[in-house]
Design brief:
The chain has helices spanning 18-29, 42-47, 56-64, 68-72, 108-121, 171-174, 242-253, 301-322, 326-355, 364-379, 381-392; strands at 5-8, 11-14, 34-37, 53-54, 80-85, 88-93, 104-105, 125-127, 131-136, 144-148, 154-158, 161-164, 182-197, 206-209, 215-219, 225-231, 263-277, 280-281, 284-286, 292-293. It is an alpha/beta fold. The chain is globular, with a radius of gyration of 22 Å. It binds 8-demethyl-8-dimethylamino-flavin-adenine-dinucleotide.
Length: 395
């Protein structure tokens, strides 16, 4: 058997999603060599649509590293959420009182495309279509990452650290021996039909509560929208022909005139969350969805990935520059602190938005409680400030 091509670097980053690409750009900017291995093609990575809001904290983080113009330039700012209860609308503000930049409406695929371009234009080493990624020697001084390049050649890269940024089903977490990590999974017992359509976006992110179930409408570009419809856990996408989708959206959003457009994606998925602890094993540092999945309510999954990425990049930078290991040693603790804070926020919002609508699942008492919570959020300044702080990522 031919020997793999031997290579060396400081950090191997597995996965070119928001977490991996942010790690790579921050390390590259700090002059630290890294190689990024991505399973998919560049075209695939740049069109994968998911999140839509970069929270205030993350916008400021890109600004601190001098990357905001390249990575987020042109994205519109928004600090208002619209909540409709049985067609009656209320606006929730989540801007901060200071003069700093605020949250931006930036679809995940735009962020990813900008991060890829910034990294490659700066001479970064990003290898698409890398298959058979396998991690070894993680508890030693010099771990290795093997992979097969698109021409069939095997490579083996020796490094100081591995950033496991390859999502919930990647190779990084799977390389950790059983029993070393503890998983904390949670099933919200709610399913959504998620729909992407070439239809005009709403003026603000919109969440609607009604007896027919939850519905959401979010911008995913100037002429693209992401819709969510709460549905039965047993539903399949085929149970939702386009006519039914638009009819339910009009009813639940209370918007007879909602403009329809071609639907490009329809998927049913159960809302679930999970945290894997600790987020470090030897010289492997898990970041983003590789370490935790947050239900999409509250828009925190991608933002948490960006947070982990920065904590890791700072820790490596401090270690390389000054031999300071404290950031590496506290990585897991620091990231998990924010992770659980965001999981709590997301669960709180998930419960409120769903319980306040269709009470066939949880009963009328829970519906009344959820409506009281929502009312307090809109009326009490202290409640709305706490909400704004969490939305901004500054709590
Ligand atoms: P990603 O984005 O999954 O990227 C992982 C990358 O790793 C690659 N990969 C591998 N590469 C090499 N070898 C392997 N063995 C590999 N296995 C996988 C993959 O191809 C991919 O390129 O993880 P990352 O970077 O941690 O980012 C996490 C976010 O993508 C995720 O948290 C969000 O999308 C979650 N999410 C949302 N987050 C928000 O902040 N706001 C939202 O509004 C929001 N909406 C959503 C969402 C997630 C959704 N889905 C589909 C789960 C809406 C939806 C529908």
């Amino acid at each position: 058997m031919t020997q793999p091509v031997q290579e060396e670097t400081c950090v191997v980053v597995v996965g070119a999603g928001p977490a991996g690409l942010t790690v790579a750009n921050l390390l590259h900017g700090a002059g630290i060599p890294c190689v990024v291995l991505e399973r998919q093609s560049r075209a695939y990575a740049e069109q994968r649509q998911r999140a839509g809001i970069v929270e205030t904290r993350a916008v400021r983080m890109f600004q601190d590293w001098g990357l905001d113009a390249r990575v987020l330039g042109g994205a519109p700012s928004d600090d208002v959420l619209e909540v409709r209860v049985d067609g009656r609308h209320r606006l929730l503000r989540f801007g901060t009182d200071d003069d700093g930049p605020q949250a931006l409406l930036c679809p995940q695929q735009v962020l990813v495309a900008n991060l890829i371009a910034t990294f490659l234009d700066g001479g970064g080493d990003l290898r698409f279509e890398s298959s058979e990624v396998a991690l070894d020697g993680l508890t030693g001084q010099r771990p290795t990452v093997r992979y097969r390049s698109p021409d069939g050649t095997m490579h083996e890269i020796a490094c100081d650290f591995v950033a496991g940024c390859d999502g919930d089903h990647g190779a990084s977490r799977a390389a950790v021996p059983e029993g070393e990590l503890t998983a904390y999974p949670f099933d919200h017992r709610i399913s959504w039909l998620t729909v992407l359509a070439e239809a005009p976006p709403p003026p603000h992110p919109l969440m609607a509560i009604s007896r027919h179930g939850y519905a959401g409408h979010f911008a995913r570009g100037p002429l693209a929208s992401r819709f969510y419809l709460q549905c039965a856990p047993t539903d399949q996408a085929d149970d939702w022909p386009d006519d039914r989708v638009w009819q339910h959206l009009r009813t639940r959003l209370g918007e007879d005139g909602l403009v329809a457009g071609p639907i490009t994606e329809k998927v049913v998925f159960p809302l679930r969350s999970v945290v894997h602890e600790p987020m470090r094993y030897g010289r492997l540092y898990l970041a983003g969805d590789a370490a935790h999945v947050v239900s999409p309510v509250g828009g925190k999954g991608m933002n948490l990935a960006l947070y982990d990425a920065e904590v890791f990049a700072r820790a490596v930078r401090d270690f390389i520059a000054d031999g300071d290991e404290s950031g590496l040693n506290s990585y897991s603790r620091t990231c998990l602190h924010r992770t659980w804070n965001y999981q709590e926020f997301s669960r709180w919002m998930t419960e409120m938005l769903h319980d306040a609508g269709d009470d066939s699942r949880t009963g009328p008492f829970r519906r009344k409680l959820a409506l009281a919570r929502l009312d307090r959020l809109c009326r009490s300044r202290a409640s709305s400030l706490a909400f704004a702080e969490l939305m901004a990522g500054l709590a």
